[in-house]
Specification:
The protein is mainly alpha-helical. It is 68% helix and 0% strand. It has four helices and no strands. Helix 2 runs antiparallel to helix 3.
């Protein structure tokens, strides 16, 4: 369960960043020379849904993986600026906050046996 929720979090972080890109392109088209609102009408709700999914998954992963309050707040704040969810996901992965442990395998912090 924990690994599945973590994988969903990673997917949501990537999807949220991609939807930001699509929404930014839609806004460029809306306010640029073509003046067409179709991109914003399509990608606005998609981005909104992915934003909510990312926030809910941050809360779930933070609880399941016992993230600190500051790390959780930073993860939530990263939902606001474009592409920050990708930065946070990579930072969390480097710090081992998203690591999965296979059954029977020691973690990186475990002392060697023998």
């Amino acid at each position: 369960m924990r690994d599945k929720v973590t994988r969903l979090f990673v997917a949501a972080a990537i999807a949220e960043a991609c939807s930001w890109l699509a929404l930014l392109i839609g806004m460029l088209v809306k306010y640029g020379p073509p003046e067409n609102e179709l991109g914003v009408k399509i990608f606005g709700p998609i981005h909104g849904g992915l934003f909510v999914a990312y926030v809910l998954l941050v809360l779930a992963v933070a609880r399941l993986r016992r993230w600190s309050l500051p790390a959780t707040v930073v993860a939530l704040a990263c939902a606001v600026p474009p592409f920050a969810t990708l930065v946070f996901e990579r930072w969390a992965r480097r710090r081992g906050m998203l690591d999965t442990v296979a059954a029977g395998r020691p973690t990186r912090d475990a002392a060697p046996v023998g």
